[in-house]
Design goal:
This protein is an alpha+beta fold. It has two domains: 2-138, Heat Shock Protein 90 (2-Layer Sandwich), CATH 3.30.565; 153-337, PPM-type phosphatase domain (Phosphatase 2c, domain 1, 4-Layer Sandwich). It has seven helices and 16 strands. The protein has helices spanning 19-35, 40-60, 93-96, 111-117, 191-206, 212-222, 313-324; strands spanning 2-3, 7-16, 64-73, 76-85, 120-126, 130-138, 153-158, 168-175, 178-186, 229-237, 242-248, 252-257, 260-264, 280-284, 290-294, 331-337.
């Protein structure tokens, strides 16, 4: 049986280096909330929170990015705002959450305001490497339930600079106790790459998954007539403490556990064009392990030590895009907790 999970759409990445950029991030977030029929007072709260988040980036982190996202499930929706920087980090996070608290050169101003208005707030910070913050805002309309977000998996996509759409895409499903992950990196970048990646998402969601290698074979067939791309599918099975992984092309997969990063193997090929052999490999999942998929817009040279303090799937995905997304390409990361 399939559990329907919210679908995340990354609406805009906003570079924040000055006050004008803060205003742009606020306008994008509040405009999105208005389109989703948030109450006027709730839109104002989101605007204030984004202003505080962006101002912190500008004044205390030396700049960064604000990502505005929408989460949807049927007729329910939430706005999610993520900030990411390479600043000095927050030396005392508890103190930073107090209104008006700040230390020169660190974050802190306004985090109390953000914490009060957000329905969910999570922060990871590393001295000398930067901070990632996520804040989720529900509509809070009487008689309308809140969107229930599965904490087990989260992903993020970032288009190549200068492109309006990302050629990477991913999808997540829960079926009979397993968490299924799929990622597609459409060949090249821009609208045609995005079209191929979205075709993979539609195909993945259309049928019940059986085995990862069978799903990859189906995606290979479905992507004929598109630009094609690299694809990977992972079936995370907590009951068996294992993950079965099949990849075609250069989607990277890894298991993080016990301070180690263990790579999962993809076979050469391009879904929609060339697939000599499609194989799946099974990997052990120790307690507390994380499963990571990412496109080749991220370098594979990152290590478990680089992300040892991050366990939340969304914050880890954003951290990887920040630190390993150094290539001039679309970038995406998808993380599942076990």
């Amino acid at each position: 049986m399939t559990a329907r999970l919210p679908v995340a759409e990354d609406v805009a990445w906003v570079r924040v280096e000055d006050a004008a950029h803060v205003g742009r991030a606020r306008r994008i977030a509040t405009s999105l909330a208005e389109r989703l029929a948030f109450a006027e007072s709730r839109v104002a709260e989101i605007g204030l929170a984004v202003t505080e988040i962006g101002t912190n980036l500008h004044r205390h982190a030396g700049g960064g990015h604000v990502l505005v996202r929408v989460l949807r499930a049927d007729d329910l929706a939430a706005v999610e705002v993520v900030s990411v920087d390479r600043g000095p980090g927050i030396p005392d996070l508890d103190r930073a959450m107090l209104d008006g608290e700040s230390t020169a050169g660190t974050l802190g101003i306004g985090l109390g305001v953000v914490a009060r208005s957000a329905d969910h707030l999570d922060v990871t910070t590393d001295r000398g490497r930067g901070t990632v913050l996520s804040a989720r805002f529900q509509r809070r309309v009487r008689g309308v339930p809140d969107l229930v977000v599965d904490p087990g998996a989260a992903g993020v996509t970032r288009p190549l600079a200068g492109e309006d759409v990302c050629g990477d895409a991913y999808a997540v499903r829960r079926v009979d106790g397993k968490l299924w992950l799929m990622m597609c990196d459409g060949s090249g970048h821009g609208p045609l790459a995005a079209s191929a990646a979205q075709a993979a998402v539609r195909s993945f969601r259309a049928e019940e998954p059986t085995a990862p290698e069978a799903v990859v074979a189906r995606l290979h067939r479905e992507l004929r007539g598109t630009r094609g791309g690299a694809v990977a599918v992972a079936a995370v099975d907590p009951d068996r403490a294992s993950v079965r992984f099949a990849g075609l092309g250069n989607i990277a997969g890894a298991v993080l556990a016990g301070g180690r990063k263990r790579a999962m193997v993809s076979v050469p090929g391009i879904a929609g064009y060339q697939a000599r052999t499609i194989q799946a490999f099974e990997h052990e999942l120790p307690p507390g392990a994380l499963v990571v998929l990412h496109s080749d817009g991220l370098t594979e040279r990152w290590t478990a030590d680089d992300v040892v303090t991050v366990t939340d799937p969304l914050l880890l995905a954003v951290t990887l895009v920040r630190d390993a997304g150094v290539r001039k390409d679309d970038a995406s990361a998808l993380v599942a907790a076990t």
